[in-house]
Amino acid sequence: MSRVINPDSTGKQRTQLSKAIVLAVRELARQKDVTDQTRDLAAFIAIALQLIADGIDASVTAWEKRDYWIKADKFRMEWAWAGQIAEKMRTSVLTEDWASVAILSAQIAQKLAKVQVSENHRLGKPWVGSFKQLTSKR
Prior knowledge:
With 138 residues, this protein is an all-alpha fold. The protein has helices spanning 10-30, 36-54, 56-65, 69-94, 98-111, 130-136.
């Protein structure tokens, strides 16, 4: 029997979410006024970062099974910021603290500076409706 390969692994999801976050941060930087789209963008960033943070343990379980503890711990430390910033962003969006959202967006842009998104990406606008989704999770 051959091994089963999961095409929707957490690593692939993390890569797609990272690219979508980079797009959302760029679009958020272009916003002049606070609109529904601004709320959607900031809420999407918070939700996507939380999804990344939730998938970290699933990513390192294979390494831990093979006793690669140092590699697993390094990976966890490398992505520890995602959950922390996700919670801060969520709080800032719900309290409509746009100064904090701008500061957090800059921090996220620094963390994801190596992520490249081509001009002809097929990601679309994944942030549409994210504010409603974020407020319904309360």
